[in-house]
Amino acid sequence: MSGLALAGRCWRLGDDVASDALISARHVFEYDPRLLKKHILAEVRPEFAAEAKPGDILVVGKRFAHGSQHSHPFIALKELGVGLIARTLSRPAFRLAIYMGVPLLEVGEDVYDQLGDGDRLRVDFATGAIADETSGARLQADPLPAFLLEIVAAGGGLGHLKQQHAAAA
Fold this sequence. Notes:
By secondary structure, the chain is of the alpha/beta class. The protein has a single domain (about 5-169), classed as Aconitase, domain 4, CATH 3.20.19. Helix content is about 35%, strand content about 20%. It has 8 helices and 7 strands, in the order βαααβαβαβαβββαα. It has a 7-stranded mixed β-sheet, with no helix packed on it. A hairpin with a 4-residue loop joins strand 5 (about 120-125) and strand 6. The chain is globular. The two termini are about 30 Å apart.
């Protein structure tokens, strides 16, 4: 599947997961994505880093990644090849996810409540279509605006800038 359509396991978290709980502060000076992905969610879901596969979807509640803002968790999620469905993200976390190239959707409580931990999901981030293959539910969310989807599809802000530069050359 493309970077904007993923299929895999649902990893569900609740509300109020602070950004400092996503990757421990002791890794604040690490920027190698291969190292960071080993530490993502170690304090919240210790098995996540070892068991998550490309295409899996992290489904999170309200106020995900609030507090201190670091790019590290989003670098790790991108390296893992994981998408993000959130009830709400803080605005800085939203911008970091886009800039790092993490496919994401913000959803209402009605959609969030239907996605179970361990369910098999198929998500098209470009259209907002969510299929829970475990429960059979077919859900719809508002996708990101086209200009943000372009950034995510390019692999993030730097990839998008490189594409624009190459097109102008």
